[in-house]
Fold each of these.
Amino acid sequence: MPWLTHGFTLRHPINSKAKLTLDFNNQIHNKKQISTQNQLIKTLSGKTLPLVLLNQTHSEKIYCLDRFIPDDSIKTADALITRLPEILLGIQVADCLSILVADPSSRVIAAIHAGWRGLLKGVVPKTISLMQSNYSVNPKNCIAVIGPSIGSCCYQVGDEVANAFLELFKKQGGIFDPKVNSLPHSMELYNRPIYNPKTRTLNLSAACRFQLQSCGLMPDKVSSDPPCTFCHNKVFFSYRRGKGRTGRMLAIIGLLS
Ligand SMILES: [Zn+2]
């Protein structure tokens, strides 16, 4: 789709001899960061485009970018929707999910940030629902990709979080039996257990996939098997591994004209 661009950054650029670290934290202000960011944007889109970031707070707030004002104040929200071309939407993550959505028919895109709090608050279904009501998007047409995040291999949670997930997803029929792993690969991919009581681990991307499909997205149009950021610490930043002190990666999506 030549009108659409997207990408996920890593901890370091591939093939970089200088071992440059790509930290896109909340305050992208120093010269080195700005220059790296501009280079990245050029690589993605072939030109210099504005990148809109958010002040992310693990909320279900969504910002609809219907008019672009350069140097406008940064909005506090965890999802962005736009139909404006020549603007890139960015989400900053280290372990949390970044979800990029595009509707090829109406050419509307969204970028969402969600950790366990965001998933429980419903930022993902709320974004899809807003795309439907405000932009006439049909979820059946949408394609989505979930970026690298902490995997079920490493994401142990306490009783409070586990119970909140069990309650919410059980109601919607979405906590799958771990035995599902014995099913054929495609089924396994679409129906990963959201919570594994044996290991007390949560599968954020499976929960997100479930929510996207509940909104009407077709299973084969959701790409959701991202590598684990905690396991692959040399490749990705991990908030948990870094005990809260780590950089941020970017997930970017944009419409080109
Ligand atoms: Zn892992």
Amino acid sequence: MTTNKINLRCFSLTDLNRIMEIEHASFAIDSFSEDIFMSWYHKCPYLFIVAEISGVVVGYMITCITHKKSYVASIAVDPAYRHKSVGKTLVYFTFNHLKTSGVKIVELEVRSTNIESIRFWENLGFSPLRTISNYYNDGTDALKMRKLLGG
Ligand SMILES: CC(C)(COP(=O)(O)OP(=O)(O)OC[C@H]1O[C@@H](n2cnc3c(N)ncnc32)[C@H](O)[C@@H]1OP(=O)(O)O)[C@@H](O)C(=O)NCCC(=O)NCCS
């Protein structure tokens, strides 16, 4: 059996077009613009991580640290590469970085209708904190989720 190795590295500006492709394929209505990606890049360059398989960028994750808390700004995997542990690999790498930085809390918001992603986060140890009404532009609620990083 051949397995495709997942390589992780920091985002670089030459990845932007590919990240935009993944973004548009992943988020129907509220995909980030190039400007938003650039502002996250300037805010949190060390945790804007891209995943590659055979030299192709297949996913990304952006996390920001503010004081001793962290916030997952976004994660997406190219639909053709989902369910191959790319998302999980990005998350575990990020958790390790956060732990070594002394960060104990990770939070995020997910569309309350995005059941697949809510399951994904629950499987990674996140618990629902509360619902934020009318959070997205189309009026959909967000579910705020949190994980405490032990050790
Ligand atoms: C959420 C997302 C990043 C997951 O990426 P992925 O590479 O497919 O995830 P993985 O293959 O690493 O899956 C990790 C675990 O999550 C769970 N999981 C993944 N997809 C799932 C699904 N559709 N339904 C239920 N559980 C799922 C599985 O338990 C899996 O672990 P296992 O393979 O050991 O059983 C991807 O589906 C995606 O890009 N979605 C669209 C964008 C999005 O909604 N982002 C999140 C916004 S908060």
